[in-house]
């Protein structure tokens, strides 16, 4: 007798679980021969089974796993809406572009409006400001936290200021409560970029719950991964509607993939100057994109999200190990610090060389690279010195002294859950060996 569809599916998924255990079996760490990554995927058979399970449906766009992931992420974040997209960079683009939507009426952002940002960060926090014809206003950050302070942001507020768009740098929360209060008093939009900070907490609240809109990234380096992927979150019905439209080609219709006539008036509405009854599935209320993720990515995300608490705890433990190790070298390095009331799920362990260190960042990171130890600079350094940004329309408030220091002297090591104590101790020993040679 031929096997049923369900029997075959069960057999396939059982074999996939077995395959994962063989293919991705843990490998012993050999100091000096095995790489020490700054980040990477951490998964087990559940993710691979979910991925193949989704592929067997051959529902390649958003489907049942997308709905489950969006719902579970919203519940975990205590947000009304979270919308899956194809990257954290797309999430940032949608978050800011949604605030230019005509749906917001007099509150919409318009070309020439100013948005407060920092130059010491990742480009795609700044890019949507420029891409929407808005003007970034840059402030400096504090060394150690690598975030802007309330005082710095207050000084940047001017007559054209309409928003604050800041990332929680490397998972380290800034004073989101104070920024939210400032935004309310000054009638500003506040966007939290949590691409590095999923699971971080400030004053008992998860980062991403203070602003009008928040963004997440699920690239392999981040707290959970879908391979590629990101999400936008909000509690605002109108902003959520604009985000969904912009993500889905700019269409006015809100039917899910494969659905029709959810509104009950697909052929009876009047839109723009279109003929009466024009098919609502082809009515476009925004100039949008197609920034959806696939259901196969969402399937991975469903399983990754279940592991998020343990992933965050592992990052915190690894950070503590780094901090304890580096404490002996405070004569050479500025160590990272968090604000009172902050509980970061650290994306990384950042350090800045002091002026009298006696060696350069490049000398140290090149030495570590020769030992197969990965490091990274703090992203763009000073974005205004990057070739693509030399001629952008912008404003700077104060100076960017610390930003330039970060550009020249800051790097970070990984905290991701795939690191273990043996690897961390090996890296610390190699740093000590380097210092013994240099100072």
- End-to-end C-alpha gap: 77 Å
CATH superfamily of the largest domain: Type I PLP-dependent aspartate aminotransferase-like (Major domain)
What number is the mean pLDDT? 97
Instruction: Work out the helix count.
Output: 12
In the CATH scheme, what's the topology name of the largest domain? Aspartate Aminotransferase, domain 2
Q: Widest sheet: strand order?
A: 1-9-8-5-4-2-3-14
Estimated helix fraction: 25-40%
The total domain count is: 2
Ranges with pLDDT <50 over ≥5 residues?
A: none
Mind summarizing the main beta sheet?
Answer: 8 strands, mixed
Task: Report the radius of gyration as a whole number of Å.
Answer: 23 Å
Helix/strand order, N-terminal first? HHHEHEHEHEHEEEEEHHEEEHEEHEH
How does the SSE layout of this entry go?
Blueprint lengths: L4 H19 L21 H13 L6 H14 L3 E5 L2 H11 L15 E5 L4 H9 L3 E5 L10 H7 L4 E7 L8 H11 L2 E5 L7 E2 L2 E2 L6 E5 L12 E5 L2 H11 L47 H32 L6 E2 L7 E2 L4 E6 L7 H10 L5 E2 L17 E2 L4 H9 E5 L6 H18 L1
Parallel strand pairs: 2-3, 2-4, 3-14, 4-5, 5-8
Antiparallel strand pairs: 1-9, 6-7, 6-11, 8-9, 10-12, 12-15, 13-15
Helix pairs in contact: 1-2, 2-9, 3-9, 4-5, 4-8, 9-12
């Amino acid at each position: 007798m031929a096997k049923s569809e369900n029997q075959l599916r069960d057999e396939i998924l059982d074999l996939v679980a077995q395959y994962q255990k063989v293919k991705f079996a843990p490998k012993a760490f050999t100091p000096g021969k095995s790489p020490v990554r700054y980040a990477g995927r951490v998964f087990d058979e559940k993710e691979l089974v979910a991925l193949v399970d989704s592929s067997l449906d051959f529902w390649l766009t958003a489907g049942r796993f997308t709905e489950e992931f969006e719902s579970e992420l919203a519940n975990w974040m205590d947000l009304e809406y979270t919308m899956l997209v194809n990257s954290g960079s797309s999430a940032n683009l949608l978050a800011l572009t949604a605030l230019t939507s005509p749906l917001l009426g007099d509150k919409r952002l318009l070309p020439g409006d100013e948005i407060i940002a920092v130059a010491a960060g990742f480009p795609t926090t700044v890019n949507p400001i420029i891409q929407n014809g808005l003007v970034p206003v840059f402030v400096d950050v504090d060394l150690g936290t690598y975030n802007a302070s309330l005082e710095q942001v207050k000084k940047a507020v001017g007559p054209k200021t309409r928003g604050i768009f800041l990332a929680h740098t490397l998972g380290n929360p800034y004073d989101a409560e104070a920024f939210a209060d400032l935004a309310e008093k000054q009638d500003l939009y506040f966007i939290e970029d949590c691409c590095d900070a999923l699971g971080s907490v400030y004053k008992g609240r998860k980062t991403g719950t203070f602003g009008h809109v928040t963004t997440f990234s699920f690239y392999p380096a981040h707290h959970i991964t879908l391979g590629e992927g990101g999400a936008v979150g909000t509690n605002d019905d109108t902003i959520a509607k604009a985000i969904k439209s912009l993500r889905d080609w700019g269409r006015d219709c809100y039917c899910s993939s494969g659905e029709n006539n959810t509104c009950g008036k697909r052929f009876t509405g009047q839109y723009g100057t279109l003929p009466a009854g024009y098919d609502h599935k082809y009515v476009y209320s925004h100039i949008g994109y197609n920034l959806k993720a696939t259901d196969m990515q969402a399937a991975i995300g469903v399983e990754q999200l279940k592991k998020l608490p343990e992933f965050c705890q592992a990052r915190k433990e690894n950070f503590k190990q780094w901090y304890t190790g580096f404490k002996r070298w405070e004569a050479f390095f500025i160590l990272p610090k968090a604000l009172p009331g902050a509980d970061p799920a650290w994306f990384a362990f950042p350090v800045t060389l002091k002026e009298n260190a006696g060696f350069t960042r490049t000398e140290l990171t090149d030495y570590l690279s020769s030992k197969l130890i990965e490091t990274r600079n703090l992203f763009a350094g000073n974005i205004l010195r990057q070739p693509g940004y030399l001629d952008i329309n912008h404003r700077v408030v104060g100076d960017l002294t610390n930003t330039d220091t970060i550009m020249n002297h800051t790097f970070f090591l990984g905290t991701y859950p795939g690191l273990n104590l043996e690897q961390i101790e090996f890296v610390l020993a190699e740093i000590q060996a380097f210092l013994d040679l240099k100072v």
